[in-house]
Known about the structure:
Elements: H1 13-26, H2 39-47, H3 61-89
Helix pairs in contact: 1-3, 2-3
Amino acid sequence: xxxxxxxxxxxxxxxxxxxxxxxxxxxxxxxxxxxxxxxxxxxxxxxxxxxxxxxxxxxxxxxxxxxxxxxxxxxxxxxxxxxxxxxxxx
Length: 90
């Protein structure tokens, strides 16, 4: 199954990957700078969820959400913080 999430701004992938790396490092995770998407395996391991490279169709929606939720949620919190900071400067 292909990923459904797509970036609306084509050149934003690099910036989003950097944001993910920065946010997850701040949360105490090791993040591979060349592939920050792999931090999900460390999160899954910490939670005891059997995430593997390739097909993970046996994971429940709850398990998948427990892995992706902290990553995406922390990224959103950081983007809101950055936006608030920019608004205060204007």
